[in-house]
Amino acid sequence: MRFRSIAAASLAGAVALSTLAACGSSGESKNEITIAYQRNTNNNVRYMDNFLGTVKKQFEKSHPGKTVKLVPIQATENDYYTKLDLMMKSPRTAPDLAYEDTFLINSDIKAGFLQPIDSRVKTWSQWSKFFPTAKKSVTALDGKVYGVPDGTDTRGIWYDKRIFRKAGLPTTWQPKSWDDLLAAARQIKKKVPGVTPMNVYTGKANGEYAAMQGFEMLLYGTDDQLYNPQQKKWVVGSKGFRDSLQFYKTVYSTGLAPKPSAALDANIANNINLEWLPASKIGFTIDGSFTANNWLPTGGKPWKQWSKDLGWAAMPTQHGQAPGKTSMSGGWSWAITRQAKNPDLAWEFIKSMQTEKNAMAYDNASQNIAVRSDVAADPEYLKAAPTVKFFTDLVKYTHYRPAYAEYPKLSTAITEQQEAVTTGSSSPAQAAADYDKAVRDIVGAGHTTKVSGTKQ
User: Fold this and answer.
1) For residues 333-346, average pLDDT
2) Which domains does the chain have, with CATH numbers?
3) pTM, two decimal places
């Protein structure tokens, strides 16, 4: 089971009881499949519900007598992972299909939760449409394929042009270094009182939003990284790691970011994207290409003016060193669980879901970056939002989390040290040392190195 605190696991288990009960009797019929997926904690964000509901109708019409049971898990991203684990552990509650974050594939294979689908994709005509990088994201260390990706993403900076004008900052903004980020935040604090200057995600409650979308957006803009692929060892003693924690100390101790009580709230992303940004209450935030899905007519906060009121910029490297920009990418996939009662029918549903038309509909609604060549070239996709080309172009600067079973544990260790620095309970140097100790405890001292190597 993934690395969780006892308290967090107990809480997630208690909250998940109703979900488990709802799924308990499913799959008993050979004519029914169950599908587990994340529903945003904000009830108004329903693009996944709408998409799956449409495909369910298509599927049941084209497969008479077959039934699709949707099992939404309403939770923050971190809690979703834990609740899904609980479901997949038991034959009674395991869904046939699970919405799987690709960075967890190897750890979920190790836990015995997923089954390979190599024989299925080899005979599927649509598999050739997927980009090689997308195929790689669902290929495990054993060389087998364990899912079908539905999109990818990149990350950058979303900034409020209205606030920038008031602060005397350019509305066509591209920071060149971390110092530029801090300078802009300080100017906003001075010239536009009453707004939060900036946001970079932090803390245990925010899981990968904090680890990947926050900390690693900084770290991978330094000369260091988490893992040395040449030595196949995890990096400790990293200056880039300490510098990234120092950035957290600077922004949170000087009032440039949300107050720690707000930043450590698991709903901080919803608060920023559904409330603060539309109401012009925050200067800029480091977030994903998918952020605009909140403001579409199908999103949680429809906002007609978002593309005029906001700007978007690439995340700079620490000192502006080559290549000058950095990003992080992830992506989600549809996986057949190890204990699926109807795996063949589940595969048929994946194929129905992943036609070109359906894939494009989902990417447009979710504001994901296409992983199929035919969708990526379609004019309808390219004109779906003004941000599509910008965030797609960031792929050339992007990095990926180390796709190893140990990563989820190390991600938790990162968020613990982020939180310690954010609250002021630990210095960056001490937090970095505590992280290094956690790495050695998790992977073994013999699997660590102080040499960063070539970035992934």
Assistant:
1) 98
2) 6-153+330-400 (3.40.190.10), 155-329 (3.40.190.10)
3) 0.88
